[in-house]
Amino acid sequence: MKNTFKIFMATIAFVGISSCTDENNLKISEPTSDTFSIKTPLNGDSIILSEATPSNPGLSLTWNPMDYTTPAVITYTVEIAKDGTDFASPIELGSTTNLYATYPTADFNLKCLMAGAVPFVQTAINVRVKSTSGTVGAQPVYSNSIIYLVTAFGCLNQYAVGQGLPQSGWNWNNPRTLLCDNGVLTMTADFLNGTSDTFRFFTTSGDWSTGKNYPYYTGLNYKIVSTLVNAGDGDQNFRNVGPAGKYKLTIDSNNKTINVAPRTTTGAFEPTSNWLVGAATPGGWSWSGNNETELGLVNTGIYEVALKLTSDNTFRVFLGNNGGDSWGLGDRNYPWYVTNGYTIDSELINANDGDSNFKYTGPTGVRLFKINTITKVISVD
């Protein structure tokens, strides 16, 4: 009987010790320090990221260690988010067991764009460090958050879907991709022109919530070619009212324009287009790169383009483009149109500069330049 009682008491004592041990183990993953914080950079520091130096540090970060009640392997993950979003959808830069991390400009720039940074405009980005220990079931602990003022470059590819784009339709099986190059998005696609043939642009493939409809762009003061209109449907999508066919569409976020130009050949330069070159145009008197401005044939007999025109400067209309200096492929100056019976907008005059180019006298800004060869009217809206 005594032996039985001793065994019973020993069992109770062992269970009690085990219970205490379990309670202590539960506390192992709990943080014991309030000093887990970012040391550098300082809150409000800024950087201008440059495409010319992709390997230079875009963000160099150091922080104080997270302290747990018992030694453990600690993993630190750096997260960023656009200021004001409260890290609702954080973007991870990477993980480390060190107390520092450096991210090259090219990588950091991409992640900032993904977080919502506006290209070429200083954007407030929140930065924080997440700490996790090796203890199973341990909850992450976050450092303080700092604001890092970032001027990013470039842009992300975007997407378009809709019934008006027959290769896509209203699904994500085959979205049209708008390729990005320094703030300019371009795509070549077939466009329909029925009353229900609408489409929309999206920031993220597969995510309907990232859509950008017609009012989104007009609300940002974009100038849009007249053959792309507000469909007037429930979602206020885009609709093409020009001829159905293959077009190159360009969204220029630098100058806030949306243009289309027909693509009837597989060549780089559309033979049905005209071209604007001159100091009044964004590219100046140059055919280098994409300096020339394509004046697309957007409808029967109508050439039109939205572009930034610089006041008190000149330009000329050229008829061809072979990919190089195309001065000799034909051109038309101000007197040619006057002689052929055109009515010309009062903001356009004869420059009387020896070549009798056009001179733009209106205010510097994004305008809609149109040559209607049927009504013989040249307008600037």
3D architecture notes:
This protein has 381 residues and is mostly beta strands. Helix content is 13%, strand content 39%. The chain is built from four helices and 29 strands. The longest helix is centred in the first third of the chain and has 26 residues. The protein is elongated and about 90 Å long.
Mean of pLDDT: 90
Low-confidence stretches: 1-29
Distance between the termini: 107 Å
Secondary structural class: mainly beta
Task: Let me know the number of strands.
Answer: 29
What's the Cα radius of gyration?
31 Å
Largest sheet geometry? 10 strands, mixed
Beta-sheet strand percentage?
35-45%
Helix content: 10-25%
Number of helices: 4
> Which overall shape is indicated by the principal axes computed on the Cα atoms?
elongated
Topology:
Blueprint: H1 2-27, E1 38-40, E2 46-48, E3 57-63, E4 74-82, E5 91-96, E6 100-104, H2 105-115, E7 122-133, E8 141-142, E9 146-151, E10 158-161, E11 176-181, E12 184-191, E13 198-202, E14 211-212, H3 214-219, E15 223-224, E16 228-230, E17 238-240, E18 245-252, E19 257-262, E20 274-277, E21 293-299, E22 302-309, E23 313-318, E24 331-332, H4 334-339, E25 343-344, E26 348-350, E27 358-360, E28 365-372, E29 377-380
Parallel strand pairs: 2-9, 15-19, 25-29
Antiparallel strand pairs: 1-3, 3-6, 4-5, 4-7, 7-8, 7-9, 10-11, 10-13, 11-12, 12-18, 13-14, 13-17, 16-17, 18-19, 20-21, 20-23, 21-22, 22-28, 23-24, 23-27, 26-27, 28-29
